[in-house]
Amino acid sequence: MSTDDRGTHDHDHDHEHPGTTPDVNETGYYELMAEAMKELLIEKGVVSADDVRRNLEFLDSRDPVDGGRVIAKAWTDPDFKKRLLEDGTAAVGEMGLTMGDAELVVVENTDDVHNMIVCTLCSCYPRTLLGLPPDWYKSKSYRSRAVVEPRAVLREFGTEVPDDMTVRVHDSNADMRYLVLPKQPEGTEDWPAEKLAEIVSRDAMVGVVLPEA
Amino acid sequence: MPLFNVGDTVRIKNSHPPGHRRTPFYVRGKTGVIERYCGDFKNPEELAYGFDGTPKRELYRVRIAQTDLWENYDGPAGDTLDLEIYDHWLEKAEG
User: Fold this and answer.
1) What range defines the domain where residue B78 resides?
2) Does the annotation count A124 as an active-site position?
3) Which residues of A touch B76 (CB under 8 A)?
4) Is A61 an annotated catalytic residue?
5) What does the pLDDT profile of chain B (95 residues) look like in tens digits?
6) Domain A64-206: which CATH class?
7) Do B80 and A166 touch (CB under 8 A)?
8) Per-residue pLDDT tens for A17-45?
9) Which pairs count as long-range contacts for B70-74, CB under 8 Å and 24+ apart, including other chains?
10) How many structural domains compose chain B?
11) A148 and A154 in contact (C-beta within 8 Å)?
12) Surface of A (129-148) touching B: CB under 8 A
């Protein structure tokens, strides 16, 4: 359907048109269940309303800046990089960063390997390092296609991985969370860590794009 | 003491029990290689129903060739999919 026939066709509306989703939606089944669960947990004293609020506040306060600092430190400090690849959780802990209840696995892009991250079961994501995941990461389309046709998905992000390189997809389906350590762009060898951190984008740490100087 | 070693060839059980499972359908029955041992973790299949998650389960990262996963995979033969599988879903296979 072309976009210029919006509103001019006369069939019943059992579908939505782009950009015309109403602001007010009925509360969905799962939203209601989540709300009921929260109320019960509070009522039974398992958590307090303030616990819930503080956790949301913490997650909302996270953003990819912290992930970028981790990558920049790995680029500028070979010993740290080694520790980061061996035990990601402990290494980011050195920087005062937490993984919460999960463990961190850092996967390194090399001349031969390109890594990308997905969670096919839900939307597991290194939230404490990158903040909340983008909508596309949570979409069924990304979650299914990233494992079936990763190279096509990468191309849609503008990332062409040559056939003589391995594409390694990581499905974060259980207790590990993943962060891609991209290759440091050429010409940035003399940059200080603070400047390097600024060129490490969220999407580069998910492995769908490459950082550019 | 880990049940599997890095490099072991393993088969992910082709089992379809009801309930909360962390083994995605697309890898059930597939063969791969142990990439690393991640430690032992409370079993999410038990935690999901309010049990205490014990005994803990060993968690492994299993590397599977994309061409073994998908009949029509159109990328190079070296491309892989790595994911995490608990020990009770794994069995030793011929390497």
Assistant:
1) 9-60+72-92
2) yes
3) 163-164, 166-167
4) no
5) 789 999 999 999 999 999 999 999 999 999 999 999 999 999 999 999 989 999 999 999 999 999 999 999 999 999 999 999 999 999 999 86
6) alpha beta
7) yes
8) 666 665 666 788 989 999 999 999 999 99
9) B70/A148, B73/A148, B74/A149, B74/A151
10) 1
11) no
12) 147-148
Yes or no: say if A127 and A133 are a contact pair by the CB < 8 Å rule.
Answer: yes
On whether the CB atoms of residues B33 and B9 are closer than 8 A, the answer is yes
Residue with structure tokens 């033969």?
Answer: B77
Residue B50: inside a domain, yes or no?
yes
What residues contact A65, with CB distance under 8 A and at least 6 apart?
A197
B22, B70, B78 member nearest A174 (Cβ) = B22
Residue by residue, DSSP assigns chain A as: --GGGTTT--S---S--TT---S--PPPHHHHHHHHHHHHHHHTTSS-HHHHHHHHHHHHH--HHHHHHHHHHHHH-HHHHHHHHH-HHHHHHHTT---TTSEEEEEE--SSEEEEEE-SSS----HHHH-SPPHHHHSHHHHHHHHH-HHHHHHHTT----TTSEEEEEE--SSEEEEEEPPPPTT-TT--HHHHHHT--HHHHHTSS----
- Predicted complex ipTM: 0.96
Placement of tokens 């939203």 in the chain: A31
